[in-house]
Amino acid sequence: MRKKISIIMSLIIMGSALSGCNNKTVVNKEVQENQVNNLDFTFDVNPKNFEVNVMVNGKKETVSNKIQEREVSNLKKSEKEVSWSYPKENIDISIKKEKDYLDVDIKSNDKEKNSFTWPNVSGESYYLPINEGKFIPSNDKYWKEYLNEQVYNVIESFSMQFFAINKDNISISYIIKNKFNNEMKFDTKDKINFEFKHKYPSINKDKEYGFRVYVTPKNVVDVAKNYKNYIIEKDEFKTLEEKAKENKNIEKLYGAPHIYFWDKSIVTENDIKWNLLKNNIPSNLENWIKELLNTKIEDGKQAAKVFDTMKTQDYVDKFQKSEIVRSFNQVMLLKEFYNPSVFKNTDKEIDKLIKKGIDNLNKVELIELNKMLLKSQLKDSTIPTENWAKSNTVDVLDDIKKSGIENAWIGFDDIEAGYVSPTLVDNAQKDGYLVGPYDSYHSIHKPGKEKWSTAKFEDKSLYENATIENEKGEKLQGFQDTGRKLNPTLSLPSVKNRVSNIMKDGYKFNSWFIDCDATGEIYDDYSKEHITTQQQDLNARLERMDYIREKENMVIGSEGGNDFASKAIAFAHGLETPAFSWVDEDMNKNKDSEYYVGRYYSTTGGVPEVFSKEVPVKELYKKIFIDETYSIPLFRLVYNDSVITSYHWLWGTFKIKDEVENRMMSEILYNTPPMYHIDKNQWNKYKDKIISHNKVWSDFNKKAIKEPMTSFKILSQDRLVQSSTFGEKLTVVANFSNNNFKYKEDTIKAKSLIIYDGSNKIVYKP
Fold it and tell me: What per-residue string of b and e applies to 568-605 under the rule 16 or more CB within 10 Å gives b?
């Protein structure tokens, strides 16, 4: 279950240094990278229509366009501050010029629900923290089409809580002081502009929102560093180095590609001697398996028929082998598999587990029992059980390690995937890798009708008593409109229970991936039994991640990676390329389209088609989600040495046809971990390319991840030649164009990059 879709080491800095003085933010030597060229300005405001302008170097620029005129009362003015009220709406406004920013505060005195819209902005272009970051020209045809009449939930749609508009020679950035209950509505009839709306829910006592407004040269680095300094000032920034002092395993993320491992086989085709099986499978076993397939397995009826057709042939064809192996793997997951009338004359090991009680076995023990039961009947028709699936799991992992990949994050697609191969989990940790399950507390399904394991909870009362209601009293539907959304403030006992049960099974996980908690999909819950504000919802999500991290000593990752979670997590999936196939039916429904991303199904039991199938992307979506000309590393400029971010798992490194090499270059330019979906077949297919890329990327990442990103520049008019700098000496210049580019004394060839590491220089072409 995945949805569609945080600035430097903690330092003690004087408050005056953070707010800045004159035209520069004053910082000590340890934070030279956070110096910001904030421009001095004066301001004026028209209280009737809330138009705000700044005067910078003798030129007037608009901070917010006029909104509707209102009656004004309590108007007060001084040299640096203006305040007034809108009495008909019970709104109080205060604007104060601080040393290097304008402080805007908008307060409601109404206890009931109301809202206010400000600012209304327009510019020649924008820097928006959509995912990693986007540069959006206001007259761009692609963005005008995509943003037409869109309304963004800001905490969910923005990875960080600020935005910036570019004027002729300056940038004006707006840091959002209250991250909750905000919307941004776009108007693209002429050029792109937008308005910002804050809602004051009746259940929330916090009735204020506002902004810090900074003016800088037109430079994405200054914009990002102002936000970084703000986060540091609020003590909301924590480096990976600091996190690693609490859990040294975080260092295993350095230079580590992110790998989803897919083969869940308990037994494989190669483990079966097919001629012997065809002629010697006991009838009572065959009949029992067919009965289980027909009654316990949702799609088992077709497989049950294969056992009959196989016997009428002189051979077993590929389809039949696949279906029979899938049948064996499915029934061996069932508690019902043990049938004393079928499995007689069992040995001591089997008897020992049976005497323990089938219901008392953990899932590892259950699978081990069922393997031995099946082998006891199939006898010489299979190889020894200790070698079942080894060539598809453990051997592949061993080869990954031998290939030179020293560090890696290994993940699974659900909470139970590791049960089928505990040896794989053990070996991954022994190899020095991070390895962890996928977990989620986002959706809960009706008891007895759970469609996936993470939506199943032991406490059956949660479905009726702990789910979220909107203002109308309607229950919010879960992911893919299935089930309901669980209120996070009522989830912690279930979190503790689930995690402890998994760890009691003996799994040596050292990482944990939690879906949805860092996406910004948070809610006000109006249920009378458990009224919850968005702030409380968010705090509960952070609390459960903190619990798993601290109690079980896990390296935590989550989907999204929006920066409110930056202190809780070490890595995130989804910022670099988000999930976007949901926006177009040709990608998600039309199976005849070349753009169809594929089924969540694998004929081999390995990587599903939706991850392994390379597909092209329509021009509009390529421009919006992938194109380098619109990409800017806003998140990286703030959080490079704090949170490691990669792609949403639906859009791994090899997913997009004709874009693989560009994305591999971006993985170095933006210091982004590659993401791979691996089984035996996919490893053999991409092995050479992965190894070759890892030799360059991994060494680079191990250095870059310990430094803040200190610079990002666009070097060509077409924006296809870009440079990034980490710390003082590590610089990448990447040429995404089809033409060579002269950079200082070097020629950067088309579709290649150069890494400048002090006096060393590495030329790389994927």
Answer: bbbbbbbbbbbbbbebbebbbeeeeeebbbbeeebebb
Q: 406-461, pLDDT tens digit by residue?
A: 999 999 998 877 667 788 999 999 999 999 999 999 999 999 999 888 999 999 99
Note the Cα 673 to chain centre separation in Å.
Answer: 12
pLDDT higher than threshold 60 for residue 229: yes
pLDDT-above-90 percentage for the chain: 85
pLDDT at 571 over 80: yes
The answer to whether residue 543 scores a pLDDT higher than 90 is yes
Closest C-alpha to 372, from 393, 354, 394, 360: 354
Query: Nearest-5° angle of CA 312, CA 313, CA 315?
Result: 145
22 has a pLDDT exceeding 50:
no
Element (H, E) at 663: helix 660-669
Residue 20 scores a pLDDT above 50: no
Q: How far apart are CA 392 and CA 163, in angstroms?
A: 47
Helix, strand or coil, per DSSP, at residue 111: coil
Indicate whether 576 pLDDT > 90.
yes
> How far lies 173's CA from each of 224, 308, 757, in Å?
9, 70, 32
pLDDT of residue 32: 42
Whole-structure pTM over 0.90, yes or no? yes
Dihedral in degrees, nearest 10, Cα atoms 609, 614, 615, 619: 140
Please, is 525 exposed, middle or buried when counting C-beta atoms within 10 Å of its C-beta (0-12, 13-18, 19+)?
buried
- As given in the structure block, the two tokens for residue 700 are 């680079």
Residues with Cβ within 8 Å of residue 13, at least 6 apart in sequence: 27, 28, 31, 232, 233
By the 8 A CB rule, do 389 and 265 touch?
yes
Residues 552 and 499: beta-carbon distance below 8 Å: yes
Residue type, 11: L
Q: Which residues contact 670 (CB under 8 A, 6 or more apart)?
A: 132, 576, 631, 633, 636, 724
354, two tokens? 């049976």
Q: Whats the size of the chain, residue-wise?
A: 766
How many of the other CB atoms lie within 10 Å of CB of 421?
Answer: 26
Lookup: tokens for 726: 């980490």
**Structure tokens, 231:** 């986060």
Task: Report the pLDDT value the prediction gives residue 363, as an integer from 0 to 100.
Answer: 83
The pLDDT score that the predictor gives to residue 488 is 98
Q: How many Cα atoms are found within 13 Å in the side-chain-facing hemisphere of 60?
A: 8
Alpha carbon separation from 744 to 33, 197, 243, 609, 741 (Å, rounded): 23, 47, 38, 45, 10
pLDDT score at 16: 28
**Residue 369, helix vs strand vs coil:** helix
- pLDDT 10s digits, 521-538: 999 999 999 999 999 999
Report the C-alpha gap between 413 and 459 in whole angstroms. 23
3 state DSSP class of 381: helix
Which residues, at least 6 apart from 646, have a Cβ–Cβ distance to it below 8 Å?
258, 571, 572, 573, 575, 576, 672, 673, 674, 675
The conformational region for residue 531 under phi > 0 = left, psi -120 to 50 = alpha, else beta, is beta
Cα(413)–Cα(338) distance, rounded to whole angstroms?
Answer: 27
Collapsing DSSP states into helix, strand and coil, what is residue 356?
helix
Reference 715, options 737, 689, 697, 688; nearest CA is 737
CB atoms within 10 A of CB 727: 17
Using CA atoms, how far apart are residues 329 and 321, in angstroms rounded to an integer?
Answer: 12
pLDDT score recorded for residue 601:
84
Virtual CA dihedral for 400, 405, 409, 411, nearest 10 degrees?
-10
CA 188 to chain centre: 29
